[in-house]
Design brief:
It is built from 14 helices and 13 strands. The chain has 365 residues and is of the alpha/beta class. Strands 2-8-7-6-5-3-4 form a seven-stranded mixed sheet, sandwiched between helices. Strands 9-10-13-12 form a four-stranded antiparallel sheet, covered by helices on one side. Helix 5 runs parallel beside helix 11 and helix 6 crosses helix 10.
């Protein structure tokens, strides 16, 4: 019996998502012990001290989580200026992306997204046996005009990321508004803002400000990046109450655990940690960009907490050479960018370690 052929047609086309290499795996494979991981866009400063304090004082882990997430939704509602019934909590924002796909895609439907966009968009689309429609990028970023043109009668969902992962590109408020005005109201537009807290550009748009005008819009965000809670898996979507009601119908009863909700609520109240993380990232972007320029390596300008750069040749040998030096970055061949690597912004010391290792590996050929 071939159990792969028993799976639905979309799942048969999928390959498992490959995350950044864990530190423990590199230790096992190469025996390297002094390791810097700059592969998964994690916050090098770690989580908020307030979040850690809240976690240390938990004493109710024998109880099921609050399936409605009342306390965290109340905190988010106050922070974002939205109603609690506009919120959907997820096991990371990936979970919310999958909920949207499950709720609104079925065989024969289409989901539109950009070339060089987050790998989860085609994954959740094919998981529902819907058709992924990839639109060519514009300088590694979204071509929003072309994406709007790609809408057909079968289009049900569009995924757009601002900033985009893995390229770090972004689009301004005017471009977003022009795009949203062209998308039919029957099409769900998912605006993935996983990295929005890092952006300091004056014309960067806040998707939540557009929810009232565009009821087909869903904004997804996460606590995994600037808040440093990646290991707890907690994210959320903000939408119209009606869309949130639909998503909560397909959401598993206890999809978010208690420690994640407790830590996220505390993290929301720690503005100092957010500002320190943003400041560290801004200086780190400059440090890495200048280092890559000194090595004459072309890079994609980024406003997120990572930079993708062109090695000028097949990037896998360079990636493997960096592993030998104890530095983990992310190869992008799976995104159709075989000559590129993506490096997460770390601390100043970690960034310097990466640049020194990269210079050595590049020189070794």
């Amino acid at each position: 019996m071939d159990y792969i052929k028993l799976a639905n047609s979309g799942v048969q086309q999928l390959k498992p998502y490959e995350p950044g290499k864990p530190i423990a795996e590199l230790e096992r494979e190469l025996g390297v012990t002094d390791i810097v991981k700059l592969a998964s866009n994690e916050n090098p400063l770690g989580p908020s001290h307030k979040a850690l304090h809240a976690l240390r004082h938990m004493d109710d882990l024998h109880l099921y989580p609050d399936g409605a997430g009342f306390a965290l939704k109340a905190a988010l509602s106050e922070k974002l200026g939205v109603a609690a019934n506009q919120l959907t909590l997820g096991n990371g924002s990936n979970d919310v992306l999958e909920l949207i796909a499950r709720a609104y895609l079925q065989p024969g439907d289409e989901a539109v997204f950009s070339e060089y966009a987050f790998a989860v968009y085609p994954l959740v689309t094919l998981g529902c046996s819907a058709k992924p429609v990839q639109v060519s990028s514009n300088l590694y970023g979204h071509d929003l005009a072309a994406m709007a043109e790609a809408v057909t009668e079968r289009t049900r969902v569009m995924f757009v990321a601002n900033p985009n992962n893995p390229t770090g590109t972004w689009f301004n408020a005017h471009a977003l508004d022009e795009f949203l005005s062209r998308v039919p109201e029957r099409v769900i537009v998912v605006l993935d803002e996983a990295y929005f807290e890092y952006v300091e550009e004056s014309h960067y748009p806040n998707g939540i400000d557009r929810l009232e005008k565009y009821p087909n819009l869903v904004v997804t965000r996460t606590f995994s990046k600037i808040h440093g809670l990646a290991g707890l898996r907690i994210g959320y979507g903000v939408s119209s109450p009606q869309i949130a009601d639909v998503l909560n119908r397909v959401r598993q009863p206890f999809n978010v655990n208690t420690p994640a909700m407790v830590a996220a609520e505390a993290a929301l109240a720690d503005e100092d940690h957010l500002e320190n993380s943003r400041s560290e990232n801004t200086s780190g972007l400059v440090q890495i960009a200048e280092g890559l320029q000194a090595l004459h390596l072309e890079q994609i300008p980024s406003v997120a907490n990572f930079i993708a750069f062109d090695c000028g040749r097949d990037a896998m040998p360079i990636y493997e050479g960096l592993l030998q030096e104890g530095v983990i970055v992310r190869p992008l061949a799976g995104y159709g960018m075989p000559n590129h690597l993506r490096v997460t912004v770390g601390t100043s010391r970690e960034n310097e370690r990466f640049l020194i290792a990269l210079k050595k590996v590049m020189a070794d050929g």
